[in-house]
Amino acid sequence: MASAPEDPVLERYFKGHKAAITSVDFSPNGKQLATASWDTFLMLWNFRPQARAFRYVGHKDVVTSVQFSPLGNLLASASRDRTVRLWIPDKRGKSSEFKAHTAPVRSVDFSADGQFLATASEDKSIKVWNMYRQRFLYSLYRHTHWVRCAKFSPDGRLIVSCSEDKTVKIWDTTSKQCVSNFSDSVGFANFVDFNPNGTCIASAGSDHTVKIWDIRVNKLLQHYQVHSCGVNCVSFHPSGNYLITASSDGTLKILDLLEGRLIYTLQGHTGPVFTVAFSKGGELFSSGGADAQVLLWRTNFDELNCKDVIKRNLKRLHLDSPPHLFDIYPRIPHSHEGKIETVETTETIVRTLPDKGEEMDRYFLNPSLMSSECSPTTLKKKAEEMSDLPSESQRSIPLAVTDALEHIMEQLNVLTQTVSILEQRLTLTEDKLKDCLENQQKLCNAIQQKS
What we know:
The protein is about 15% helix and about 40% strand. It is built from two helices and 30 strands. A five-stranded mixed β-sheet has the order 2-3-4-5-30, with no helix packed on it. A hairpin with a 4-residue loop joins strand 19 and strand 20. The longest helix has about 50 residues, at about 400-450. The radius of gyration is 24 Å and the shape is globular.
């Protein structure tokens, strides 16, 4: 079937990573693309012909997330080495390192004004950082399992997070409290994000579903079951009219949110697709997956002025305007395949600033890259809701005391993990000792029988 002029077109692909792609993000000016990978590297791709690609070295484990700052002068990354790094996106690629999480960090996200950075981690917390001073501000604790993703609302007043405890939570950045909670009894959300005007959130489910929630009335607006495997990532078009999804079934799908239906299925990757993102103006989108390829697509619909969109979204001050999405379910799918074109890039290896502080032992084992996630993931233990923790924004508590308490909690987490490891080792030692005694008894019995 011949593709219509308005169909998405695969323009080119980039090869340079040696393992699966975990995250992609466009620079604000749309001239560069940053990618993160299981190979522990970040790469910065330039769209100009014959331009060089830069490889940034610094993380010691899988890089799970990457994002440009709103001005494009910084690049934030998260890793399973439990650190967050801020890079200068140039040919030297110098970086500074943040250490506060006690487990792998799953996502990074800048606020729209660039003043703050939110990080989500498998230590069950979301942490917020001040970018001007480059220092830790506060933590959000309510999740009872690994936090997979945390995103600021367009106006910066809210944070949405998703966790393997099967909940999606909305946080108020002023009160530091959880103000809304969405739960799912089937699967958990791998990824979550606000739509461009901040009235709705979309979640990518391990149970193969994509859900759109209106956060003003806490209502499920749309529920899509268009993938045959877990959905790993979603991205809103800047107009808010379209949503693109990436799944372990190897496909990308574009949903028309106004009509409530699937309009395109795009096939270009071999194996699971882990990440997808629209450019800031919406004219391009990029995807990456287990095949270590980064694909660049042109949308060919809804050309939009990026500055107008951002200006319009930042003017929104209230959450009480009427819903703009309809409660409609998807109808007829539309299949579409793109053609792959090649492009060559050169790589420049750059140095980073030396690591500071003591390193923690790694305990996280990487699962197989190519394993399909086609069966819904279930948790071994049912998560229990924790009670509200005291607000960390109370004016009566000095900042130094808050930092000290935060440090103590982190050290307690480390001690808990250490005790758990020691208990396991003690159990293994006892089992080995028991086996030795049994073998010794058998040997004595055998000697007595021979004599």
